[in-house]
Structure formats: C-alpha cells, structure tokens
Amino acid sequence: MSIKRLIILGSSAQVPTRERNHSGYFMHWNREGLLFDPGEGTQRQMCRFNVRASTITKIFITHFHGDHCLGLPGVIQRLALDNITHSVDIFFPASGMEFYDNLIRASSYHQGVKMNPHPVEDGGEIFVDPSMRIQAEALDHTIDAFGYKITESDSLTVIPEKLKRAGIFGADIGSLKSDGSIEIKGKKVSLEEVSIPKKGQSMAFIMDTRYCRNALNLAHEVDLLICESTYTSEHSELAKTYGHLTSAQAARIARLSNAGRLVLTHYSQRYLDTRGMLSEAKEEFSNCVVVADGDNIDLPVVKRVLE
C-alpha cells in the first residue's frame, strides 16, 4: 500500500522551546522511512510520536549546524540496539565528512548497523533505484548546505473496467502486476493493456538558506514542499545575515515553482505564535500550513497521468 506521510518531530530553529524540539522530520514514503535533519532529542521525539527506529532506511543531513545533526548519534545507536538487518543510506555535505565521522563515533556502542555514507559534493541526481530518484542542490547558508528532492518513479494504474472486460479477477490481478502479463482463456493480456501510466509523486526538503535559484529548482512542481520559515518579513535583514528565509520568501518559492502544498517550519524562538507567519505566507501562496511538533501531513493526492 502506498503511504506518504510526514511526521514533524521538531519544528524549532537554533534554540528549542518548551513547545518545539530541535529539527527533525520523518517521512513514510511507501516502503522507505526517510529521516531528515535529526537534531538533538530526535530519538525521544520518535518515541513520543510513534516513529519506530526500525523503519528508518535513509537519513538526510542538510548541513552540520548542531540543531540539524546532533540527534544522529542517538538515532544510529538506537538502530544498532534494535539489531536492524537492513542497511541505512546517509546523505550529507561532503565538506562535513569530519563532523559525520565524529557523530557516528560519538560514544562507545556495538556498531552493528551497516551504514552507506553518501557525501554530496555537487548538485544533481545523487541516488537512483527502481522506486525513486533523489536530487540534491547547494543552498545559500552560512556553511555548506544542500536541499533534497525525492521523486517517486512513474508507474501504471490498473483500470477496473478494463480488468473486468479482460476477465481478470482476484489473485490473477496480483500475478499480472508482478509478471507484467497473464494468460486468460488462451489469450495473453499485458499490464499495459489494462492500465494507464501514472506520474510519481515528489517532495522537496529545504532548510537553512537565503532565497536562491536552487531552492526554486528543488521545489519545481513538487507535490509537497517542506521549507524553513525562520523569520517574518519584519526581520528580513536578520534572515539575510544569518542565511535564512522569511515566511513570505518560502511562500514565494512555492508559488513560483508551482508546488502543490507548502509546509512551513523551523521557527525562531522569538515567535511564540506562528499565526503571523501563516498570514504572511498566504498572501503569496494559499495552500500552506504552519506545523507544530507531532503534526502529521499527508502528501496531497494528485491525479497525475502521464501524457
């Protein structure tokens, strides 16, 4: 079954608050579990919001400021404690290899997890398998930082009426999907004959950056854009100085890139109330939401058929 659901583990920026943990975002992506920017306290937040460590298959670090990576040692050690048998891909800026090494060796533990490090040096496609493609692009922060885009592979959707006309029912449907064709009453029926092509869904994860072209590139026509919103426009100079976005700029990225839905997060501690951010963003892009720790966001269900 296809499940694509974002769980907010932490929505704070540099300093956590009573209500907001440091960064942490988990995406159920079909059979994959994608963990983004595990800040301090991520393992605890996973317990609070029912994210099993064993479901993590890929970890993404946008940059090596502590609020986006200090939770990595605890997560890795939990994976080892749970004796997971699958390997875990970890993506991070290549310039931070020293930090990565220090984090995964931060204390003594049984290193039983097979980790596949993917240091990212340049923008472009960084991972491909039959189910997905992963793109990274350099962002404009105060240190090296990358944003990520996940795109599901295109697929076929079977049409019930066509299956019925072809005489394909029950277990034969599964056989058709797995084998690509089936013989019914002496006639071979291919999967393409009873299906239509379906475009895969996509999401982008953009943290800690000034407004830049690569943010637009990552967000181009994604179904879900998860984007930092550290400041409101009244503090735009602070945003520029410290390498961040305002809520209006995040919304502008969503609008100009034709994104489906915008998730605003990563708020400065100065904002106890995020309603002003939402109001400002909605002036640029209506389909947006501000989130709190523990919120669940499903990818929009979009009927996207390939032409």
Q: What is shown here, in short?
A:
Helices cover 24% and strands 29% of the residues. By secondary structure, the protein is α/β, with parallel strands linked by helices. The strands form 4 sheets. Strands 6-5-4-3-2-1-18 form a 7-stranded mixed β-sheet. Strands 7-8-9-14-15-16-17 form a 7-stranded mixed β-sheet.
Reconstruct the topology from this structure:
Layout: E1 4-10, E2 24-29, E3 32-36, H1 42-48, E4 58-60, H2 72-81, E5 88-93, H3 97-104, E6 115-120, E7 124-129, E8 132-138, E9 146-152, E10 155-158, H4 160-166, H5 171-179, E11 181-184, E12 187-190, E13 195-198, E14 202-206, H6 213-219, E15 224-228, H7 236-242, H8 247-256, E16 261-265, H9 275-282, E17 288-290, E18 296-298
Parallel strand pairs: 3-4, 4-5, 5-6, 14-15, 15-16, 16-17
Antiparallel strand pairs: 1-2, 1-18, 2-3, 7-8, 8-9, 9-14, 10-13, 11-12
